[in-house]
Amino acid sequence: MTLLVVHLLLTAAYAGFQWTVRAVVYPQFALVPAAAFPAYERAHQRRITPVVGPLFAGQGVTMLWLLAARPDGVPLAPVVAGAVCLAVVLGATGLLAVPLHRRLGEGFDARTFARLLRVDTVRALAASAGTVAAAWLVLASG
């Protein structure tokens, strides 16, 4: 049960983090003066990585553990659902958000920024669904 609770805490923490970024951090990007934006974006990248990295790593470890050695009585469906949600988050981050941030690091571009907001909404929704799957695991196993 400890693994399930730790996994739930990690997924919930990441979902809260992602919604904060989507609702608070990213909207502020459009307010930064154009001349200052590249430095602002690079600073954002440096500062966000140590926050998100451990959340990704923790979720990765607990999810792999659940997939590789699912405890007795833990249903498979929420494990698979959670794995799919995490894959969406990680894929959208690595394949879409990171390259968009690199582009923005060269200068603010409204189209790139709009695309980042769309990608981030997908990440926030997938993270939320992953938290629901993790809660399902805890409730179904309790």
TrEMBL record:
The chain crosses the membrane at residues 48-67, 79-100, 121-139. Keywords: Membrane, Transmembrane, Transmembrane helix. This is DUF1772 domain-containing protein.
